[in-house]
Amino acid sequence: MRAILWDELELRPTIQIKLGTRRRLDPLRPVEGSRPGRPRYRGQEVELEGRWEELDGGGSLLRLRLVNRASESIRVTRLTFPTENGLAAFIGDFRPEKISFMRNGYQSWSTARSYRLREKPLRPWLLLVSSASSNLANLPSNHPGILSSEMYSVITDAERGQSFLVGQGAPFNQFLYIKLNLYRGRKRTSHFELQYDFGRRMIEPGERIELDRIVMMKGETHALMARYFALVKSEMRLRRPGKNVRGWCTWYSYHNRITPEAILRNVEIIASRKLDIDVIQIDDGYQRHVGDWLDPADPFKGRMRELADRIREAGYRPGIWIAPFAASLTSDLLRHHPDYVSRTERGKPIVCGYAPFWRGRLYYGLDITNPRFAEYIRRVIRTIVREWGFTYLKCDFLFTGALRESDPRDIGRSRAEILREGMRMIREEAGAGVTIVGCGMPLSTGIGAVDAMRIGPDTGPFWIKRVGRLLRTGAMVGVRNSMRNVMVRSAMNKNLWLNDPDCLMVRKARTSLSPEERMSQINAIILSGGALVFSDDFSSLSADAMEEAAKIGRLSNACFRGTAVAVDLMEREIPQIFYNTAGFLGLFNPTERRQTIEVRLETLPWAKGRYAHIVPYDVWSGRPYPLRDGSTLVAHRMPRHSSILLTLRGMPFP
Fold first, then answer.
1. What backbone torsions phi and psi does residue 571 show, to the nearest 5 degrees?
2. What pLDDT does residue 653 have?
3. Do 457 and 468 touch, CB atoms closer than 8 A?
4. pLDDT (tens digit per residue) in 408-432
5. Residue 524's Cα: distance from chain center in Å?
6. What is the DSSP letter of 384?
7. 64: CATH
8. CB atoms within 10 A of CB 305
9. pLDDT at position 596, please?
10. How far is CA 53 from the centre of its chain?
11. Does some domain include residue 591?
12. Each residue's pLDDT tens digit, 116-160
C-alpha cells in the first residue's frame, strides 16, 4: 500500500475557534507551493503543517503541527478533516452495501462493536446515561450509515475480507474521532471524516502544538489491528505485562455493605484452599462517602493499615478501589470545598451521572487543574499507599476528570491532557511499584498511564437489565454487554495494558444467570487471556465450585500466554468465534434462539495450512469433538446464550 497523500484528496479542513460563549468555524486553505507529502493549510489565525511517512510493511503515518500565527492567544475546540470524495479515495474499490464499520467507544463502559450500514447506532434517551457511558462530544448518530468511533476504527469489505484501518498515534493529547457518513440518496455527498477534539484549549501567540499522529493501513482485519497496537506500543514505549493479575474483589458479593470481617474470612479461605490468587481488592463501601476517601465508614475506622498488613501477611497484595475525580452529592468534600467541582462556563456544577448505590445518588466531576484539589488527591494517594499500605489501586469513574462541558482553571491543556495530568499525579504519588487499574476511563488517555484497563461495562449476576433497551444503551450492565466488549477489544490486551474483563462469579446461587449464561461468561474471560478476578463469597461455595475456580485459573494462565482473536468481530454485534493462539477456541451463541455454528479451521487467524492434525476436545467434559471432513467444526443447535470451549491439540501456534 503506497502512502495516502491528502494533497490528492478533496480535503477541506476546518478549525473551530472559541470566542467567549460563541464558536467560529474557519476554513483552512492549501498553501501554494506545498510539496507532495508535506501538506500545509492556512486559516485566519492558524497554520497547519503535515508530513507523511511510509510505515514498514505498508501504510502511512501523518504528523501534524498546529501553529498560532495571530498576535493574540486563541482557544481551539475542533479541527476537522472532511474528505468530500473520501469513499473513493480511501476505500474506492469497496461496495458501500458490503461495508461494516467497527466502533470503538469512548471509555471503558462504552459500546464497542461492528455495524452494518442497515444498523442504527442508538443514542441513549437520557443525557445522564450518555454522560456516564459515552462521549457527549461524539454521540451515536441514531441514523443507519452515520457511524463514528474513537481512537481507531476498522472499515471492512465483508465480501472480500479486506479492511482499512485509521487510528490515533502518540502522544494521545487530544481525542480523535473517526466518522463515516454514507448517504444513499444524491442530495448529500458521502464522506469520511477525522476530527481532533481539543476541549477549548488555549494556544499562545506563536505556540506550536504537535498533534497526535494519524495511522492508516490497508489489509486483513486482524493483521491490521495487531500491527496498529504494536505500533502504538512501540511509540509509547509500553512494556508487555510479565504476568497476569489473579485476584479477588468484594464488589459482586457484598457491594458497598462490606466489613473487615468478611474480607478477612475470604482471605483465610483463599489461603487455606491455596487458590492461585495474588491480589485481594477492597471495593466500594469502605469509605463514608464517595470523595471522602480518608474518612472510612465506621467498621473500617482505624483499621485500613491493619487490613492491608493482614492481607500482605497472608501472602497477597492489598488492593483498594477509589474514584479519584468524582464526589457524591452528600460528600463532605463537596460541602466544604464546592470550588473543587467541575463547572460550566456559566459556573454551573456538572452532574456526571446517577449511582443508585451511593448516598445522594447523583455525583459530580472534580477539576483536576484546581491546585487545592490537586493537593488533596495527592494526599489521598500518599495516605492509601504509604500510610495504609495498599499497592494495587483500581481507579474508577475516571471520565469525570475530562468532562466536555467543563471550563477548567488551566485552559492551556486539552481535556485529554488534563486527565493524563491527573493520572500522572496519581502515578507520581503511588510510585512505580504500585499497580494502577483504570475503569470508566477514556481509553486513549489511559495508554501509558495505567497497567490494566477495564474494557467493558460492569458484569453482574444477570444476562442484561431490560431497562437497557428502554434507555437505548449498549453500555447497560450485565454479562451480555460485558462479554461483547471483552471480545471486541481483545487485541488491546498486552499491547496497551492488561485487559480487565471485570469480575467473574462462579456461584450458582444468588444469581439469575442460567447455567449456559454462567458458562459463557467463564469461557469468554478464560479465552481473553486478561485479568482474572473472582468476586464470590468463598465461604459459601462448595468444594466442587472451589475446584472449578482453580481450573478456571489454570486455563486463564494458559490463555494469557496466547493472543485472543474475535474472529468474526466485523460480521455481527457479538462475535461467535473467539480464538486464543495458545490452543483454545470458543463458540458462542449470544442470540435468543438455538443456532448452529460452523467453523472452518483454515479460517482461524494464523492457522492456514496447519489444521490437518488438530484434535478438538471439550475443555469441561474432556470428550473429543468431531470434525466434519476433517476440517470443519459444527456445533448443532446450540441453546441461546450458550457456549462451547475447546482445546485444539496438535496445532503448532506462533
1. -105, -25
2. 42
3. no
4. 999 999 999 999 999 999 999 999 9
5. 17
6. I
7. 2.70.98
8. 14
9. 97
10. 28
11. yes
12. 988 999 998 888 889 999 999 999 999 998 999 999 999 998 777
Element at 151 (helix H, strand E):
none
Q: Among 170, 172, 217, 180, which residue's Cα sits nearest to residue 197?
A: 172
**Of 235, 251, 271, which one is at a domain's C-terminal end?**
235
Nearest to 155 by CA among 146, 147, 163: 163
Residue 335's region, left for phi above 0, alpha for psi from -120 to 50, else beta, is alpha
Write the CB contacts of 233 (distance below 8 Å, at least 6 apart in sequence): 240, 495, 496
Q: How many domains does the chain have?
A: 2
Residue pair 59/167 in contact (Cβ under 8 Å)? The answer is no
Whether residue 478 contacts residue 462, with contact meaning beta carbons closer than 8 Å, is answered with yes
Quick one: 235 exposed, middle or buried, by C-beta within 10 A (0-12, 13-18, 19+)? middle
Q: Which of 235, 270, 300 is the last residue of a domain?
A: 235
Does 489 fall in a domain?
A: no
Cα-to-chain-centroid distance, residue 83: 28
State the pLDDT confidence band at 608, using cuts at 50, 70 and 90: low
| Mean pLDDT, residues 401-408 | 94
Helix (H, G, I), strand (E, B) or coil at 94: coil
Of 191 and 128, more confident: 128
CATH code of the domain covering residue 611:
2.60.40.1180
What is the band of 78 on the pLDDT scale with cuts at 50, 70, 90? very high
- Using CA atoms, how far residue 350 sits from 270, 325, 367, in Å, is 42, 12, 10
pLDDT digits (tens, 9 = 90+) for 358-377: 988 999 999 999 999 999 99
With contact defined as beta carbons under 8 Å apart, do 449 and 434 qualify?
Answer: no
H/E segment holding residue 99: strand 99-103
Q: Quick check: 223 pLDDT over 90?
A: yes
* Cβ count near 518 (within 10 Å): 20
Q: What share of the chain is helix, strand, coil (3-state, %, to 5)?
A: 25, 30, 45
Contacts of 248 (CB under 8 A, 6+ apart): 266, 270, 277, 279, 280, 281, 533, 534, 535, 538
Q: What is the model's pLDDT at position 99? A: 85
pTM of the model: 0.95
Residues in the chain: 654
Element (H, E) at 418: helix 415-430
Grid coordinates representing 55? 510505515
Is 152 domain-assigned? yes
Respond yes or no on whether the N-terminal peptide bond of residue 96 is cis (omega within 30° of 0).
no
Residue 632 lies in domain = 577-649
Pairing relationship of beta strands 452-454 and 498-500 according to DSSP bridges: parallel
Task: Tell me whether residue 285 is in a domain.
Answer: no
